[in-house]
Write a structure and sequence with these properties.
Length: 460
């Protein structure tokens, strides 16, 4: 591959190793260094992938869905390049390929499974053309970085135009994602949940206080009508004016139970006859209704790529999140669950997941406003924090750079919160005087540092 490529890979590896020793993530820095030394390295390495390149985009669920797809492929014995850590901008994507390559620039990979930040797709797609793109959902997220959802949709539309042969696996329950995918002209595969689920936050039309981004038809501007919602704008919808509506679902979750984890069947629609058949029964020891969508997206993507799913069930049994998304820790006698909550839709689903646990629990909420989080934290006022006014929650502690704002938000729904600005101190205090069942919800830049704190405490 040449001296420049070798220098880029060796330098990136050395920097990544140094960052790990220093307790830093360093993935983005490694990718940036490699691209600076050899600007064409990503394109050359990606061209060596033998099979399909699958990318995942969307506001919520990208990292979990992406890592599930990677695990599903590895369970079938395939070698996979993946940005496991969630570093999903151009430099993080580059690092995933560079750190998987040999010093001589050779990449031995059957597939690449890559999470990409929506705004970064237009920077990544010129380097390689994905074969499959999973579009999870489109919610309001970081207004001062993305602007309104229309801006994100425009960026994705431009990126899709760069990969004309790409197939899109789309969440058919999201009117915004569905409209964007249909308008792109790409071949579509859909997944969704066609039944209203007892015990979930699902509800009949009109019965929610959640902010919905997709209230109006993107095709004609009239208000959409819903038979029911699952959460936010996800549900069964149609436009009474122009006929736009929820498409036929190719991979449909049915017979859903939320008792003792997630249990559901996947019904698969035949491409030729349209008939449905039971394709798979899923059992997963995960909490959170939204994880049904993540698992469905993973299964649909793998099937769309033409890769076997013989070991899909055993993969789910063995899957253990290690990136702060529903990651569990055992610190002495206490159970601790860490999860990301970075926008209204995601936070409301986190609250639902916490409330599914009816046993006594303590809660820590960490809010930062660094550049990657978005400086504007007004989204906190769109979260249904009043649902935390429940006898099972023994204490709530707020922490992070904007802990005062978070405490004020809770005060407006008459919920008392202790304030401990330092995250490590907050965790230590709740482990000392709490009930032994701790939930830690953090926004983006607090995730990696909080994960490291909990990992160190777990090791003792």
């Amino acid at each position: 591959m040449g001296i420049r490529t070798t220098a880029a890979i060796v330098s990136a590896r050395a920097l990544s190793s140094f960052c790990k020793i220093a307790g830093k993530q360093g993935v983005t820095m490694a990718g940036k260094l490699a691209m600076k030394i050899d600007p064409g390295i990503l394109k050359r390495l990606a061209s060596q992938v033998k099979g399909e390149i699958i990318v995942t985009c969307g506001t919520n669920g990208k990292t979990t869905t992406n890592n599930l797809i990677c695990s599903a492929l590895e369970a079938e014995g395939r070698k996979v390049v993946c940005n496991h850590t969630g570093s999903n901008m151009l430099m993080g994507v580059a690092a995933a390929f560079v750190l998987s390559a040999s010093p001589g620039g050779r990449l031995d990979a059957d597939n690449a499974v890559i999470e990409i930040d929506e705004a970064s797709t237009v920077r990544v797609f010129p380097h390689f053309k994905p074969d499959v793109c999973v579009l999870t959902n489109l919610f309001r997220d970081q207004l001062d970085r993305y602007g309104e959802i229309d801006i994100t949709m425009d960026l994705l539309r431009k990126a899709f135009d760069m990969a004309p042969e790409m197939r899109i696996v789309v969440n058919g329950d999201d009117s915004l994602s569905t409209y964007l995918a249909q308008e792109s002209g790409h071949p579509l595969v859909t997944y969704g949940i066609s039944e209203q689920v007892p015990g979930a936050q699902g509800h009949a039309a009109g019965g929610t206080h959640e902010i919905r981004e997709g209230q109006f038809c993107k095709r004609c501007g009239n208000r959409l009508e819903y038979r029911f919602y699952h959460y936010s704008q996800l549900g069964v919808y149609h436009c009474p004016s122009c006929g736009f509506g929820r498409p036929e679902i190719d991979y449909d979750a049915c017979h859903i139970s939320l008792k003792d984890g997630l249990c559901f069947d996947v019904a698969e629609r035949s491409p030729d006859q349209g008939a449905r058949k039971k394709a798979l029964s899923i059992r997963a020891n995960y909490r959170g209704f939204y994880n049904i969508y993540n698992i469905l997206a993973c299964y649909a993507a793998v099937r769309t790529a033409g890769i076997p799913t013989d070991h899909f069930g055993s993969m789910l049994d063995a899957y253990n999140p290690e990136n702060g998304r529903n990651e569990q820790f055992r610190i002495g006698p206490a159970k601790v669950l860490l999860n990301l909550a970075k926008n209204p839709a995601g936070f409301n689903q986190n609250i639902s997941s916490v409330m599914e646990d009816t046993s006594p629990k303590d809660l820590i909420i960490v809010i930062n406003d660094n550049a990657q989080d978005g400086r504007d934290i007004s989204w906190l006022w769109d979260v249904d924090f009043d649902r935390l006014c429940d006898g099972s929650i023994r204490s709530i502690t707020v922490s992070g750079l904007r802990c005062q704002d978070m405490r004020l938000r809770l005060k407006y729904v008459s919920i008392h919160a202790d304030l401990i600005e330092d995250v490590k101190s907050a965790i230590e205090q709740r482990l000392k005087d709490g009930c032994g069942n701790l939930y830690v919800l953090v926004n983006y830049t607090a995730l990696y540092s909080t994960h490291n704190i909990l990992k160190a405490m777990e090791k003792g």
